[in-house]
Amino acid sequence: MQRLELNWIGKNIHPRLEPRILVEDTEQSYHANKRISGDDIFDNRLIYGDNLLALKALEQEFTGKIKCVFIDPPYNTGSAFSQYDDGLEHSIWLGLMRDRLEIIKKLMTDDGSLWITIDDNESHYLKVVCDEIFGRANFISNVVWQKKYTIANDAKWLSDNHDHILIYAKSKDRWRPNKMPRTDEMNARYKNPDKHPKGAWKATPLHAKSGSDSNRNFSFTFKNGLVWSPPPGTFPRFSEQTLRRLDEGDEIWFGKDGGSAPSRKTFLSELTEDGTPCPTVWLHTEAGHNHEAREEVKSFNVENPFDTPKPERLLHRVIHLATQPGDLVLDSFAGSGTTGAVAHKMGRRWIMVELGNHCYTHVAPRMRKVIDGEDPNGVTRTMNWQGGGGFRYYKLAPSLIVKDRWGNPVVNPEYNATQLAAALCKLEGFNYAPSETRWWQQGHSSERDFLFVTTQNFSADQLQALSDEVGGEQSLLVCCAAFHGVTAATASERWPNLTLKRIPKMVLARCEWGHDDYSLNVANLPVAQFEKVDSNDGDILVNSSTLKKAPQQDSLFGENE
Fold first, then answer.
1. Which phi and psi angles does 347 have, rounded to 5°?
2. Selection from 292, 264, 303, 323 nearest residue 112 by Cα
3. What is the pLDDT of residues 82-92, one digit of tens each?
4. Helix 312-322 and helix 338-345: axis angle, to 10°?
5. How many degrees, rounded to 5, is the angle at CA 374 between CA 368 and CA 377?
6. Is 391 helix (H, G, I), strand (E, B) or coil?
7. 226 and 253 Cβ atoms separated by less than 8 Å
8. Which of 271, 268, 284, 278 is nearest to 188 (CA)?
9. Are 463 and 439 in contact (CB under 8 A)?
10. How far apart are the first and last CA of the chain?
11. For 510-555, how does the pLDDT look when each residue is reduced to its tens digit (9 = 90+)?
12. Angstrom distances, CA of residue 201 to CA of 104, 197, 276, 326
């Protein structure tokens, strides 16, 4: 081992994901019946399906385009929520989270950020995993959010009243959060007891914790004769010239009796209007709480308000800090749809992914109410939301390759010609964009490199005709069932502008076909393979994936975990 890292069983196993296409369900897609404003956003996406496969499906189109990612994954507490299978062992949970985070990082813009809500059960392990993926230098903060305002009197140890929000930047040097708007409470701290013409002010220290060693013996004499030096261990905040200017402008406060330690008058009128830095402790009075969130969900699903929703005020703060209007927000654990609802009201574009049935019962109905202007809850009044916009509803396409009745791999018969062409474009790294004038241009990777897909067979004469039409200035990848009278090797010599590949042979070794569920569900995981190994204590069983590897560090998990 060459670096400090967190190890777990199966860490070196990475799934070979199938990059599936997304198929729109137009009956579930929804938009307002009229434009409310010129800023209405219609091309949002709600995706029903396994979120790891969905992230992979988004990779080609959205790499480097997501400004803010907010995820609220199952916390691995064993609570057995009805919407999630939330009782995974540490290693399984960490592995599944790692796979998702690696794709999420690719999707983020260079000045993008990731926000993860998590509780004490996994937060510290998850932070180490995030350090490995994003780099420890790109860790921003661990926000503590007060999710409950009441004390659990039946708590066996301490009353659990908070969750963590881990914040990472794609590149900390490039990411800066927006400021929080000043509140009336903040402004009320500024007074004007001496009737200064600049208006209300607040006394602030003249010294700082850090500074130049050359100023250790600094002193300054004010016009009233008081000689001031910074307290021991501190440094002057201002130069001699600045202090003289402040003194001449009556911007130094010596207390009501004129004999107190001097301080600067910081005027409210001179503060920048972009707000103040956000603190790392978020009280329920500012960022909402769990009970508030459940009441918001009840407005569109009274019978099943969802067990673990997040309040709209919490997402409003995250999205405000991380984005500007028009930016793209992703939530791959959509839950009850709070992220999309708040992003929509704030004029951000959004993508949500959800596998559970509550994609139908919670998320879609909630977004329809938001779009129709019929959701009075959450941040609706704060944002003066009147409705508008829309979203497209997508499902993950089934696996491209299936087995026929004899066990042979074949193209899934559920795919039509359009879907097959789109799927092979994604697998080959081409953009699916059928030409209206050239039948053989179904996708392109550059201005001169194209792809054509057909389930038909090609003869040598047909290939010659196709080559002539493509011309010598362009190239074409031909994906077909078979070609006769020529081999792929001789074809490249005879028609240098054509590359021939057979379907489905060309893609069989690419990924795991037919694997539809990578969800956080222990029942869907493969069984580990074990081998007997001799030891001083007799035969023991060892996970075969760990054999013949460098010795691992001792487990960071407690006994019996």
1. 75, 30
2. 323
3. 555 544 567 77
4. 60
5. 105
6. strand
7. no
8. 268
9. no
10. 24
11. 999 999 988 765 444 444 444 444 544 444 444 444 433 433 434 3
12. 45, 11, 16, 37
